[in-house]
Amino acid sequence: MTQRLPFVIALVIAASSWMLACQQPNNTNANNQTTIVAPVWLGLVGDTSDVQGATQAGTVLMGGSTDVDEAMRWMLSRAGGGDVVIIRASGGDGYNDYLFTLGAKVNSVETLLINSRDLANNPEIERRVRNAEMLFIAGGDQAMYVNFWRNTRLHDALNYLANVKKVPIGGTSAGCAILGRLYYSALQGTIRSEEALANPFDARVTIGRNDFLTMPFLANTITDTHYDNPDRLGRHLTFMARIVKDTALGAPVQGIGVEERTAVAINAEGKATVFGRGRAFFLWQNGLQTMPEVIQSGVPLTWNKGGQAVRSYIIPGSSQGNGDFDLTNWSATPSGGTWGFVSAVGGVLKGQ
User: Fold this and answer.
1) Is residue 6 assigned to a domain?
2) Shortest CA distance to 134 belongs to which of 86, 68, 177?
3) Residue 63: inside a domain
């Protein structure tokens, strides 16, 4: 707490001024100008002034449950001492103190609760996000993120951070689920592995395709989280099978699954390493000609190809970061993990 005392007065003044300036409802005035909707601001720790640090690009895919300190420090170290912004559609400000005191010095950490499309289109929220030197998407419900954030000013700001400003960006649980360019939207609710395998065309198998975030090195890639609680390898395989069936990608579909208390850190060169207590699963279609044999509504999935439909490489995490997987060339030789295959026959998962 003593670290933040010099900023308390400035923080109160800045917060009060911002909120008072933004308390009008969202409407159109006589000059056809839209009035700013009041953002739901969950507070800031650190210095309220904007600091522009020299950032290093990077992406963190976190599997949910307890956050992985080492992966968070990895992100913070790439923020150039600048400002960290947390975005979420539910929950509180718990990341503020946690990240500000974790060890890698940054100017500030603030949390924005963006739980409507009006807020996602708010110019003040857009400005604060664009000014970030690190951005983290908290857990929650990815359907809210898709419904509230896609095709908004916030959407554009996030892609600006990833591809123009090139700051570290990460997400956990639902926040991780939307980072792939292919993503499980959960717009009709969640689905378990056994349900997805039993019917790949269940209404709850909802997949977004190249219409949201454009994170580096995650083209043709769908993520999944909480991989070990419950087991989600079966539904992840089903998502991949549906993408192969429904979409002409022109390249093998890929997946990254992350267990709880685990994080995949991807550097600016596309090299991935794994932090934490669990494992990360790198999955990819074993060649463009490897198509599902049986994939239709109401019929259990068969995607087998002699038990080798999807290649896998599984890397256990460590506190220092373990393994090396090249996301620029999935056929390159990785290290630190184990090889395998994943397939399904009659709705029953085979392999690892």
Assistant:
1) no
2) 86
3) yes
CA distance 80 to 105: 9
Number of domains in the chain: 1
177 within domain boundaries: yes
Q: Tell me whether residue 99 is in a domain.
A: yes
Q: Which residue range(s) make up the domain with 272?
A: 40-278+318-338
What is the domain-level CATH number for residue 183?
A: 3.40.50.880
Q: List pLDDT tens digits, range 121-180.
A: 999 999 999 999 999 999 999 999 999 999 999 999 999 999 999 999 999 999 999 999
Q: Parallel, antiparallel, or unpaired: how do β-strands 134-137 and 348-351 relate? A: unpaired
Q: Measured in Å, how far apart are the chain's first and last C-alpha atoms?
A: 47
Can you tell me which residue has the tokens 């963006």?
Answer: 114
Q: What is the pTM of this model?
A: 0.90
In the chain, the largest separation of any two C-alpha atoms, in whole Å, equals: 68
Q: What is the pLDDT of residues 284-341, one digit of tens each?
A: 999 999 999 999 999 999 999 999 999 999 999 999 999 999 999 998 899 999 999 9
